[in-house]
Amino acid sequence: MENFEYKIFLSNPAKDTDKRIIYTSGRVTQVVGDNIKKDAHYYLCGNPYMIDEIRSLLLKAGVTEDRISSEKFISPVE
């Protein structure tokens, strides 16, 4: 896809994480604020609290709701 970019963030990667996978170790909320583009489309998936926090950051930065899609992953054991 032209102009498509994705980034993987692992807040707590396993020690045996496949080294061929390129990812950023840490919390996505630490870097997303500096990289928001109003005309981009965003697809968020993961922890519901992270989704809500990132969605809020995007909206405050002027990204419209129609440019944000998300899936919240909830553990069956809590």
Helix-strand layout with pairing:
Blueprint: E1 9-10, E2 24-25, E3 42-46, H1 48-60, E4 68-72
Parallel strand pairs: 1-2, 3-4
Task: Tell me what the structure shows.
The protein has 78 residues and is an alpha/beta fold. It has one domain. It has one helix and four strands. The strands form two sheets. Strands 1-2 form a two-stranded parallel ribbon. It is globular, with a radius of gyration of 14 Å. It starts with 8 loop residues before the first strand and ends in a 6-residue tail after the last strand. The mean pLDDT is 85.
Residues in helices, as a percent range? 10-25%
Task: Give me the side-by-side strand order of the main sheet.
Answer: 1-2
Structural class: alpha/beta
- Portion of residues in beta strands equals 15-25%
Rg (C-alpha, Å): 14 Å
Order of secondary-structure elements: EEEHE
Average per-residue pLDDT, rounded, comes to: 85
- Number of domain modules: 1
- The strand count comes to 4
Oligomer: single chain
Low-confidence stretches: none
**What's the number of helices?**
1
